[in-house]
Write a structure and sequence with these properties.
Length: about 475
Amino acid sequence: MTENTPPKGEKRYDRSLVEGHLPSAVWKLAWPTMLANIIGGMQGVIDHALVGNFVGFTGNAAVGVSWQIFLVVIVFISSLFTGMSVLVARFAGAGDHEKVDRTVYQAFLTAIIISLGVLAPAGYFLAPHLLGMVNASAAVQAEALPFLRTMFVFSLGMMIFFMLAGALRSAGDARTPMVLGITTTVLNILFNIVLIRGLGPIPAYGTRGAAMGTATAFGLVAIYSLYKLLAGGWVISFPKHEGFAPDWTIIKSLFKFGLPTGFQGIAMNIGGVMMLGFIGSVQHGAEAQATYAVSYSELFSFVTWTSTALLGAAAAIAGQNLGAGKPDRAVEGVRVAARIGLVVAAFVGSLFLLIPAQLLAIFGMHDPLVVGIGTQLLRVLSLSGLFITVALTYTGGLQGTGDTKGPLYISLVSQMLLPLSICFVMQRIGVLQPIHIWLAILAGHATRCTLSIIRFRQGKWRGIKVDIEPSPA
């Protein structure tokens, strides 16, 4: 291969990510994920509405508790797909489709081994103990146990979907994951309508029906995706003319780059649970927890959904440009993603400032005390959103280039140590109030933003080596 000859397979990938207009490239990767996140979030609302109407509030509690447990496990286990994304972006940037496809296939094998060999048996037998750890009542546990067991045993479809979505985005295709995600959401809603309430000869499965619908929807999309990976036609596929055995060198790399992200996710979930404990301990704790659930978990999601999509875009842009030997363009790509995030966060934040009562009223919150606490939180979040969107885009830049340990350390300091310490100190001196907790969250987001920018500007990611041995075939 001469110096001016493009690497084999380079035309397979969208070269605008490493050669074209950067703002357009970032937006091309970000907007499909934003749309998919919003539609996926609406699915959760519909699920809760169906379960609440046909099962009752115990069903809603069961679904909420089960997802809290299931997501903690899934976030950690699926962290290996962050490692896969690092490899795929780097190899796609270099135009090496052979290494991209080998990485995707090894990630697929790992997903099967983990889902069927670990999650399914361990989740089935440990589900009662996990529910006991969150102090769920007997009535809630009765509804939650079959739901949680179904999610664990039939987790393979979801694992394959997460793996595939990450691989496609890292290779420069964000639209296909969007279409697959929307299809999964629509199928999930249709299945849940039938399975939760029953229809004709199909009995009403209640809360378990919600898990059955989710597993079936992800499973069908996974089967279709497997066909496409074998037949070709996507920007990624399974390698041809190679054996089906695991490549432990590649699998080791998946965990090397992915496990820090898994520990980061667990740490942030633990921090969130502990923060809920502080919120519940204040005067009018129930009202504060309710406003936190609506304001932070629902309304603030419009910032985090956008920021998460930009995190993925920044990771793909940074990884591909580093693979193409253009680290300075990787830096500029992350900056562009951060600017887009700031525009969205500023718009959403302005709504938090201008119409907080109206936003809370959408969720049936009219009590003056609740509205007062919620308005206070939304005002803090209007500023906090600016910090978290920049933090997440720079986190994407770090993770996409292979620096997954930096964001782990930053999250431990900013999302756990700092805000929880503030709450602990204020509680010890006997003056902990909701505003102190809201300001602790703001301090954590501001710290995460600052440390992420500093870490990225240090440029240590420029020297991270990502490679695998050529295929014997």
